[in-house]
Amino acid sequence: MTNVSTAQRRSLDFSRLFKAQLAATAAIMALAGAMSGAEAVWSALMGGGVSLAPGIYFVWRGTRRSPQPQRNVLNLYQAAMGKFGLTVALFALVFALVPPSNPAFFFVAYVVAQLMYWLTPWLVRERSTPNT
Q1: Is 29 domain-assigned?
Q2: Neighbours of 49 (CB within 10 A)
């Protein structure tokens, strides 16, 4: 029997979530390309990016470890606020600077990438932490 530390048990593998979001975005991009052409593909890519970038920020900011439990909670709150702010800012940037030519594929890609937060635990059967 292997002795696994608490830190190892608590470390999560977020790469599977991000891979699922990228795969979902790629599937929507392929569908957009088949149905509407290159401009729809670009719209779907932007929608997936608006979903993916704040999630990466949240993981980067929220998984910092501190010996003080209060600091860990503060990191999670700051990560959540930053994720929300980054999402709003990215939506504003996309619609102000590069308006999607096909908003339907933009929002479909965004929503499907967001659904991966719910679906990834069911899609991936193996545990993200080692067995104790």
Answers
A1: yes
A2: 17
Q: Is residue 102 part of a domain?
A: yes
22 contacts 48 by C-beta, under 8 angstroms: yes
The residues of the chain scoring below 50 in pLDDT are 1, 4, 9
Q: Cα separations (Å) of 19 from 1, 48, 131?
A: 31, 12, 23
Nearest to 5 by CA among 92, 95, 72, 65: 65
Q: Please, what's the b/e burial string for 51-69 (b: 16 or more CB within 10 A of its CB; e: otherwise)?
A: bbebbebbbebbeeeeeee
Instruction: Give the span between the Cα atoms of 90 and 36, in whole angstroms.
Output: 24
Tokens read off for 7:
């830190």
The overall pTM is greater than 0.85: no
Residue 58 lies in a domain: yes
Is residue 25 in some structural domain?
A: yes
Number of compact structural domains in the chain: 1
43: domain range?
Answer: 13-123
pLDDT in tens, 30-68: 999 999 888 899 999 999 999 999 999 998 888 877 788
